[in-house]
Write a structure and sequence with these properties.
Chains A, B: GO terms for molecular function: glucuronosyltransferase activity. Chains A, B: It is an enzyme of class 2 (transferase). Chains A, B: It catalyses: glucuronate acceptor + UDP-alpha-D-glucuronate = acceptor beta-D-glucuronoside + UDP + H(+). Chains A, B: This is UDP-glucuronosyltransferase. Two copies of one chain form a homodimer. Chain A is of the alpha/beta class. The first copy, chain A, has two domains: 285 residues, Glycogen Phosphorylase B (Rossmann fold, 3-Layer(aba) Sandwich); 161 residues, 3-Layer(aba) Sandwich (Rossmann fold). Chain A is 50% helix and 11% strand. Chain A contains 20 helices and 13 strands. In chain A, helix 12 links the parallel strand 8 and strand 9. In chain A, helix 2 packs across helix 18 and helix 3 packs antiparallel against helix 4. Chains A and B meet through helix 1, helix 9, helix 17, helix 18 and helix 20 of A and helix 1, helix 9, helix 17, helix 18 and helix 20 of B.
Chain lengths: 532, 532
C-alpha cells in the first residue's frame, strides 16, 4: 500500500495542476457592500473572486467611509444627496450617543433612537442609487450571475429582488434576529440570548424572562427601525413587501462567526460559518513599531484600539485610561487621534494608526483592549491574545459578553470605569493564567478547520454563481404559514376529534343510562301503582 | 499584483510541503463499527486515518458479515454466542419479512416485529464484548483519544460512556429521529417527514396529520425496540440510563447525507454532512465486464443490484423482473445468486458480483435499479445515473421517496409490481429527458463542494482526538428540562402576572364603583327619607 505522505504528495500535485490550469469558470458578480467596517472583510472575498478571474462590479456611493478604488474589480459609483461631513456627523452622533452611559432598558432605547436618526442615511443612499437611471439601466442590461451583499442596510437585498438575481448574504447579524427569522431557523428563547440583553446561553429564570420580553418587543422596534427602507422597497418592487420578503430569497448566508465565539444553537443548511475570515497571516511590522516592540522588553506590550469608527473619546475618559496605563509595566500602543491626555505615562504610545493584526500576532503581545467589534475579536482569537473589552455600540456588548463568558477577557463599561478598574482588568488578563489558557484553547479550536474561511466564502459565492442559486438548501417551511408551521391546525383537528368522540361516547352512555333508568323507573312506578 | 494562478501555485506548493513533512499528529482511536453495509463507508474513514499515522483499533465480533482483516489497522476480535448460520438466518428472516407486501400501518408493524426479533443479536454481541474480560481490560488500559462508532446498535455509544471517551458518531440515521432528539436539534413536524411515512417535505394536511401521529407513537415503539440494549447499558454503567443519555455526549455526528438527497431542515453545529463519502473515483472495469459493456452498443446498459444483503428474491418476482428486462434494448447487469428465471432474456447478464461504482461511472450506464440503500443512491447521484428504486427495508422506502420527489427516479413496490410496471419505469427513466436532467442537476450540486466528504470526516475525527471532544459545539439546551426549553415556566409566570394584574384592576374598579354607587345609594336613600 502507498504510504500516507506519498498519497498526500499525489493529491497536492494534482491540486497544483488543477489550479495552474485555471480551475474556476469565470462569472459575473454584482456586489452591494455596506459602508464602514462591514466592508473590511467583504473586500477580502471580493478581491479573491476578482483574482480568480470573475468580473466583479462593486456599487459604491460617491460619499463613503471606505475607499472604492481597486485595480482588481470595477467600481460603479453614484452621486448621493449628502456630504462627507453629513455622514461623519451622523455617525459620530450615533457613536457618542452610546457614550452617555445609561442602565437597561434606557441604553436600548438610546441606541434605538440613535439608530433611527442615523439609519435614514442608508435609505437615502439606496434612493440615490435607484434614481441614477444610467446606472440602473446598466445593471438591468448586465447579465450578472449573482449578487453579494451585506443585507444590514437592505439596499443589496432590494437590488437582488429588483433584478431577480440569486443572492449571497455576508454578515455578522441583523437586528432582531432577522437573519434567523428570514431563514426559517428555529431560535429557542430558552438558550439563545437576544441582542442587547447581555445574556449568555446559560440563563437564570429572570434572564430567560428578560429574553422573552426583549424578543416580544423586537417586533415593534425593528419594524420602526426598517420602516422607511421597507416603504421604499415596496415602492420600487410595486408590491407590499415585509422585511422577511426581502431577505428570505437569499441562497446562502455567509455568517462572520463560528461556535468558538457564538453560542452553539440550531442553524440551517444554507448558513455557512466564516468567522475569522479577516485574520491575516502575520506580516513584518513597520520599522517604527518594530523598534518600539523590541524596546518593550520581557513585559511585552498591550494593543488598544476602539475600531475604525472611534479614534477619540471624551477627555475625562481618556485621562482615566492614561492613568491606568501608567500603572502597568507593559508598553501600550493606543490608536488615538484626540487631544493627548496630560497624564499620559511614558510607556504609552499614541498612534494614529496601528498594524493591529501584526501586533497581535507578535509573541510579545500580552493583551488587547478592544471595543468588541467582531473583526477585532477574531484577530484576538486567531492570535490568542486575552482581551479587555470596552463595548460601545451595535453588537459589541453582546460580542464582549461572549468572550467574557468563555473566560478569555474582561468587559468594562468605558463610561463608568475608573482607572483602577482598567488596571485591575489588565493585570488580570495579563497575569492570571486562566485568561491566557482560555484564549489559547479558543484559538486552537478556531484555527483547527478543514478549510480557511476565505476559501469557504469564495466557494459558496461561486457555487451560487454556477448554479444560479441554491434552491436545494431552501426549506419547505418558507411555504407554510405560522399555524401550519407549528402544526396548530393538526393539533386543533386532533383535539376536535377527541372532543367529538368524548361527546358522542358521553351521549351514548347517557342514552343507555337513561334507557335503563327510565325502564327501571317505569317498572318501579308501575309496580308501585300496582301495590297501591 | 501577483496573478491568481501564481498565488494558487504558491498555495499548492505550500500544501505539498506541509503534507510531505507530515501534517497530522498521530493519535489513538478505538472503532466500534456496526455490522453489515454500515461498515462499508466507515471503513474508508478508518483506512484513511490509519494511513495518516494514527493507531486505530477496530473491535469486531468473531462472527460477522464483514471481513475484519486489514494490514492498516489492528482488529481486536471477540467470541460471540451465535453462529454465522444464526446471524444469516436472522437477517434473511428480517429481509424476507419485508417481501410480504402489506399496506400502511401493517408494513410498519411488520418491520417493527422483524426488527424486534433481529435486533437482539446486536445486544448479544455487545454482551459478549463486555464479558470478554481480557479485551475489556486492554480497552481500559489503552489510552484512546476518541471512539468512532455507528451508534445504531448502541454498543459503541455504551463503550464510549463506559470508558469515558469522547466519541464521533458516523451514521445515516437512527430510528425515531433519535439522532436529532439526542442532539437537541429542532425537528418541526410540519415539514420534516418522519420515517416510514413516505411523506416528502411538502405535505398536505392529511400527510401532516400522519406525520404527527407517527411521531407520537415513535416514543412507544422505539422504547420497545431498544429496551434490551438500554437495560444492558444501565447494568454496565450502574445507573439508570435512557437512549438519549447514551447518545447525547457524542461530540461530532458525521451524517452520511447532504441536502441534495435529504430535505433541508434545521441542523446543529456539531453535525457534519458527509453524504457521498463512499463514491469512489472511476476505476477500469474488469475484462469480462469491459467486454459486455462494449457489446451493449448505443443503447448502453442498466445496473441492477439489491445491495449487499439481498442477492436473491422469490422466483415469482424474479420472473416478472426477467420478463421486463426482455422488453428493453439495453443490456442488463443483474447481481443475483438465486435460481436463474426460465424466462431470462439474452440481454440480461446474471452476475454474482458487480463493480457497481465503476459500471455506474461508465458513460454507457443508462439506469440503475437499486433497493435504495444510501450507499447505492449516492453512487447513482455521484455518477448521475437515473434510478428505478425497489426499496425493501429500513430507511430504503424513505430514501427512494427522496429521489422520486426530485424527479430523478421512479419507485416500485417489488412485491406488487408487474413486469409492465418495471419496463414502463425503465423506459421512463432512460428515455424521458427530465430524469436525466434532474439527476445531472443533483449530481452537479452534490459534487460541487469545497472539500471531499472523506477528508471532512477524517478532519473531524482528528479534531475530536486532538481536542478530546468538541465541548464548544455542545448547546446549552442539554442542561434544560422540557418545560424550561420551551419557556413554559416563563410563559406561565407572565400569564400569572397578567391575570393577577387584571384581577387587582378589576377589584379596584369594583371597589371604586361600589364606593360611588354606595354613596349615591346612601345619598338617594337619605334624600328619599328626608322627602318622606
Amino acid at each position: 500500500m502507498m504510504p500516507a505522505h506519498l498519497l498526500h504528495c499525489q493529491l497536492a500535485v494534482w491540486m497544483l495542476l488543477l489550479m495552474v490550469s485555471g480551475f474556476s469558470e469565470s462569472g459575473k458578480l454584482l456586489v452591494v457592500p455596506m459602508d464602514g467596517s462591514h466592508w473590511l472583510s467583504m473586500r477580502l472575498v471580493v478581491e479573491k473572486l476578482s483574482q480568480r478571474g470573475h468580473e466583479v462590479v462593486v456599487l459604491m456611493p460617491q460619499v463613503s467611509l471606505q475607499s472604492g478604488v481597486s485595480d482588481n474589480y470595477t467600481v460603479k459609483s453614484y452621486p448621493v444627496s449628502y456630504t462627507k461631513e453629513d455622514l461623519n456627523g451622523r455617525l459620530q452622533n450615533y457613536v457618542s450617543s452610546h457614550l452617555t452611559g445609561q442602565p437597561f432598558p434606557f441604553n436600548v432605547l438610546s441606541i434605538y433612537n440613535a439608530s433611527l436618526s442615523t439609519f435614514p442615511v442608508f435609505v437615502d443612499q439606496c434612493k440615490n442609487l435607484f434614481s441614477h437611471r444610467e446606472l440602473m439601466q446598466y445593471l438591468k442590461q448586465s447579465d450578472f450571475d449573482a449578487l453579494l451583499t451585506d443585507p444590514v442596510s437592505l439596499c443589496g437585498a432590494l437590488v437582488a429582488n429588483y433584478l431577480s438575481l440569486p443572492s449571497v448574504f455576508f454578515m455578522r447579524g441583523l437586528p432582531c434576529n432577522f437573519h434567523y427569522k428570514a431563514n426559517q431557523c428555529p431560535d429557542p428563547l430558552s438558550y439563545v440570548p437576544r441582542i442587547f440583553t447581555m445574556n449568555s446561553d446559560y440563563m437564570t429564570f429572570s434572564q430567560r424572562l428578560k429574553n422573552v420580553l426583549v424578543d416580544s418587543i423586537e417586533f415593534f422596534y425593528c419594524n420602526g427601525f426598517y420602516a422607511q427602507g421597507i416603504n421604499f422597497a415596496s415602492k420600487i418592487l410595486k408590491r407590499d413587501v415585509t422585511m422577511l420578503d426581502l431577505l428570505n430569497p437569499s441562497s446562502i448566508w455567509l455568517m462572520r462567526y463560528d461556535f468558538v465565539f457564538e453560542y452553539p444553537r440550531p442553524v440551517m443548511p444554507n448558513m455557512v460559518f466564516i468567522g475569522g475570515i479577516n485574520c491575516d497571516e502575520r506580516k513584518a511590522l513597520p520599522k517604527e513599531f518594530e523598534a518600539m516592540v523590541n524596546a518593550s522588553g520581557e513585559h511585552g506590550f498591550v494593543v488598544f484600539s476602539l475600531g475604525s469608527m472611534v479614534s477619540e473619546i471624551p477627555m475625562k475618559n481618556a485621562k482615566e485610561i492614561a492613568e491606568a496605563f501608567g500603572t502597568i509595566p507593559q508598553t501600550v500602543f493606543w490608536r488615538y487621534t484626540g487631544e493627548t491626555p496630560p497624564n499620559l505615562a511614558k510607556n504609552t504610545k499614541l498612534v494614529k494608526w496601528l498594524p493591529q493584526n501584526d501586533l497581535l500576532a507578535h509573541p510579545k503581545a500580552r493583551a488587547f483592549i478592544t471595543h468588541g467589534g467582531s473583526h477585532g475579536i477574531y484577530e484576538g482569537i486567531c492570535n490568542a491574545v486575552p482581551m479587555v473589552l470596552m463595548p460601545l455600540f451595535g453588537d459589541q456588548m453582546d460580542n464582549a459578553k461572549r468572550i467574557e463568558s468563555r473566560g478569555a477577557g474582561v468587559t468594562l463599561n468605558i463610561i463608568e470605569m475608573t482607572s483602577k478598574d482598567l488596571s485591575d482588568a489588565l493585570n488580570a488578563v495579563i497575569n492570571e493564567k486562566s485568561y491566557k489558557e482560555n484564549i489559547n484553547r479558543l484559538s486552537a479550536l478556531h484555527l483547527d478547520r478543514p478549510i480557511h474561511p476565505l476559501d469557504l466564502a469564495v466557494h459558496w459565492v461561486e457555487f451560487v454563481m454556477r448554479h444560479k442559486g441554491a434552491p436545494h438548501l431552501r426549506p419547505a417551511a418558507h411555504d407554510l404559514n405560522w399555524i401550519q408551521y407549528h402544526s396548530l391546525d393538526v393539533i386543533a383537528f386532533l383535539l376536535a376529534v377527541v372532543l367529538v368522540t368524548m361527546f358522542i361516547s358521553l351521549k351514548c352512555c347517557l342514552f343507555c343510562y337513561r334507557k335503563c333508568f327510565y325502564k327501571k323507573e317505569r317498572v318501579t312506578k308501575s309496580s308501585k301503582s300496582k301495590t297501591q
